[in-house]
Amino acid sequence: MLRASILRARAPIRSIAPAAAPQWRVARRFFADDKKTGETAIPNPAPSTTPSNPTPSASVGSPSTNLPKPPPVSRSAPVEQPETTPPTGTGSASVAPDPVQAPKPKKRRFRRFLIQLMILSALGYVGGVYYSLVSDNFHDFFTEYVPFGEDAVAYFEERELRKRLPGRAGLPRLHSHPEGGSKVTIPSNHGLSSRVAEEADLASKGPHVSAVADNKAAAPHSNDGPKVGSNKTPQEVKKESSDTTEASSHSLLPKVTPQAEPKKEVAAPVPEPAKPVAPIDHLAVGSATEPVVQDVVKIINDLITVINTDQAGSKYGSALEKAKSDLGKVVSDINTLKASTQKDAEEKVKSAHAEFDQAAKELVRRLEVQMQDQETHWKEEYENERERLSQTYREKLQAELDAAQRVYDQKLKNELLEQSISLQRSFAASVRERVEAEREGRLGRLNELSSSVHELEKLTAEWNSVVDANLRTQHLVVAVEAVKSALENQVIPKPFITELSALKEIAADDPVVSAAIASINPAAYQRGIPNSAQLIDRFRRVAAEVRKAALLPEDAGVASHLASLAMSKVLFKKSGLAIGQDVEAVLARAEVLLEEGDLDNAAREVNGLQGWAKVLSKDWLAECRRVLEVRQALDVIATEARLQSLLVEG
Amino acid sequence: MADETSKSVTPVIKTSRPMSEALLNEKWDRCLSSFLIRSGLGLSFGIVFSVLLFKRRAWPAYVGLGFGAGRAWEECDNSFKRAAAPSKDGLRVVRP
């Protein structure tokens, strides 16, 4: 069943393979495509694994279809291979077609590659050429770097140029080739060349028609045909043709020649062509200077020649004669007309000359007049200007003179005024002198009186001041006493600011008193000071404490303090004026001094203490000092008061 | 009159600074109080430790007491020594 499905899947291949070939080989070939050729021993494992369900097998087969089918060339190969090789080699047999295929595409590929390369390069070249025609930048690049690019571009440019300017198609290219240089070919018939073709047209105007001087030169060269312009050829022709015409021609000749000779115009002796009947003379108008007339004469001459050649002179003779005479008339008319016009022109020129002369004279005259006018005008202006200038200068001079005069006048006036002022001043001074001298006599006595009054007043004032000073000193003393009593009679220290302020008021601005008060420590009168009894009391308390610390060493700790505390209890007390510098002796002396009332010395003694003793007695010492200060200040004030009273009395 | 004046004066006399003669006494007071407090604290810590850690042995309590007392002694000693030297309050210290 599985095999059938595989076969179904491989239908095309099976058709190719011969019917005799075993089926497993066919199936195995596909796996051989995928895998290496060596593993061909196991025949188709897929069907063995899944024999039960057919659909998976189909699915297994279908991926194999996706594998690249061998190309038609290879189709024949597997058919041949199995026959030649043993069954084991079948795997390689399926791959066999590949090496056959490989060389062919390789060759072709190379060829194709070459072809493509060529095509591409050609296309690129063409594109480059085209683009270089369009863009200048690319043109430069292309011509410089691409081989043969310059040639190609130049060729196309030339073509384009030729297309644009078709007239110069034959010209050599504009770009001179760098190597070849400019190739200029000079044609063979360049420069001077004989002109032969001119002889052909007789009708055109030329020396053969009108010039007499050419006659001799042209004669030998004349060749074919009757030449109208030439003199001798018609005669030769005439001789050849016939003699009969001679008479008539001779008769006509003298008519024409005299006219032609003097005027040197057209070929005067018009040789009569061989005319059987009556050859008509050529017209010869002497005065045909006008080109129009010449043309007419030429036309008629042509007509005549034609007629002569036709031998129809008899027919048109009269008409031509008439025409000739008419023409002569016309010519004469023209001449007369010309003469008249010339005369008119000359007259006009003369009149114009005269006019111009007149005009010129007029112009010259007018110019002269104008110049004269201008001259006079300028002269006048010059005069005026001079006048004006002189006027202004005169005015200025006048003004200057006036100013100088005025200044001088003013100066004189000023001098006069000064003189008068000095005179007045001297007069006033003399008057005052007189008056003063008069006055002093009387006022001198008045002054004496007033000075004596002043002295009296001064005396009284002095006495008043003395009384006042007395009063003041009295008040001062009283105030001092009040302060002292206040300090002595206090139970506890209290401030004595009021008393002190009263004392200061009374003393007014006595420098000594104010200095003494200033010397007192402010703390003293603000808090008050203790009296002597209080001081002694406090000293006793302090002394007890000091005694406790009497035995302390320099840097005492707790232990030494304890020891001192204990030992001080068993110390013997000193009394009276003890001798020695130990604490106990100092305290005893201080106490004695205090009791005597010598506060100053007591303080001195206590101040001599050292270490803890001094620290403990510091406050008491400060208090002592304050008290001493106050006492000293009060003493000073009292002394001052006494001194004041003494001074007043003195 | 005297009463009035004393009343009015007393606040003036009172100062924050102790009298100089009471300086030592004050120090002694402080030392004693600190001795009591610190030794008590050390003792109580020692007791607590002995109860908690040392199976109610006696020596931790003594050790704590010793610590407290020693500390108090040291502080006291320090304060006495410092006070002996003149105070440097209000003086400028010039360092080299």
TrEMBL record, chain A:
<keyword id="KW-0175">Coiled coil</keyword>
<comment type="function">
    <text>Component of the MICOS complex, a large protein complex of the mitochondrial inner membrane that plays crucial roles in the maintenance of crista junctions, inner membrane architecture, and formation of contact sites to the outer membrane. Plays a role in keeping cristae membranes connected to the inner boundary membrane. Also promotes protein import via the mitochondrial intermembrane space assembly (MIA) pathway.</text>
</comment>
<feature type="coiled-coil region">
    <location>
        <begin position="342"/>
        <end position="414"/>
    </location>
</feature>
<keyword id="KW-1133">Transmembrane helix</keyword>
<keyword id="KW-0496">Mitochondrion</keyword>
<feature type="region of interest" description="Disordered">
    <location>
        <begin position="215"/>
        <end position="274"/>
    </location>
</feature>
<keyword id="KW-0999">Mitochondrion inner membrane</keyword>
<feature type="compositionally biased region" description="Low complexity">
    <location>
        <begin position="77"/>
        <end position="95"/>
    </location>
</feature>
<keyword id="KW-0812">Transmembrane</keyword>
<dbReference type="Pfam" id="PF09731">
    <property type="entry name" value="Mitofilin"/>
</dbReference>
<keyword id="KW-0472">Membrane</keyword>
<dbReference type="GO" id="GO:0061617">
    <property type="term" value="C:MICOS complex"/>
</dbReference>
<comment type="similarity">
    <text>Belongs to the MICOS complex subunit Mic60 family.</text>
</comment>
<dbReference type="InterPro" id="IPR019133">
    <property type="entry name" value="MIC60"/>
</dbReference>
<keyword id="KW-0809">Transit peptide</keyword>
<feature type="region of interest" description="Disordered">
    <location>
        <begin position="167"/>
        <end position="190"/>
    </location>
</feature>
<protein>
    <recommendedName>
        <fullName>MICOS complex subunit MIC60</fullName>
    </recommendedName>
</protein>
<comment type="subunit">
    <text>Component of the mitochondrial contact site and cristae organizing system (MICOS) complex.</text>
</comment>
<dbReference type="GO" id="GO:0042407">
    <property type="term" value="P:cristae formation"/>
</dbReference>
<feature type="region of interest" description="Disordered">
    <location>
        <begin position="31"/>
        <end position="105"/>
    </location>
</feature>
<feature type="transmembrane region" description="Helical">
    <location>
        <begin position="113"/>
        <end position="133"/>
    </location>
</feature>
<feature type="compositionally biased region" description="Low complexity">
    <location>
        <begin position="47"/>
        <end position="59"/>
    </location>
</feature>
Automatic annotation (TrEMBL), chain B:
<keyword id="KW-0472">Membrane</keyword>
<protein>
    <recommendedName>
        <fullName>MICOS complex subunit MIC10</fullName>
    </recommendedName>
</protein>
<dbReference type="Pfam" id="PF04418">
    <property type="entry name" value="DUF543"/>
</dbReference>
<keyword id="KW-0496">Mitochondrion</keyword>
<comment type="function">
    <text>Component of the MICOS complex, a large protein complex of the mitochondrial inner membrane that plays crucial roles in the maintenance of crista junctions, inner membrane architecture, and formation of contact sites to the outer membrane.</text>
</comment>
<feature type="transmembrane region" description="Helical">
    <location>
        <begin position="35"/>
        <end position="54"/>
    </location>
</feature>
<dbReference type="GO" id="GO:0061617">
    <property type="term" value="C:MICOS complex"/>
</dbReference>
<comment type="subunit">
    <text>Component of the mitochondrial contact site and cristae organizing system (MICOS) complex.</text>
</comment>
<dbReference type="InterPro" id="IPR007512">
    <property type="entry name" value="Mic10"/>
</dbReference>
<keyword id="KW-1133">Transmembrane helix</keyword>
<keyword id="KW-0812">Transmembrane</keyword>
<keyword id="KW-0999">Mitochondrion inner membrane</keyword>
<comment type="similarity">
    <text>Belongs to the MICOS complex subunit Mic10 family.</text>
</comment>
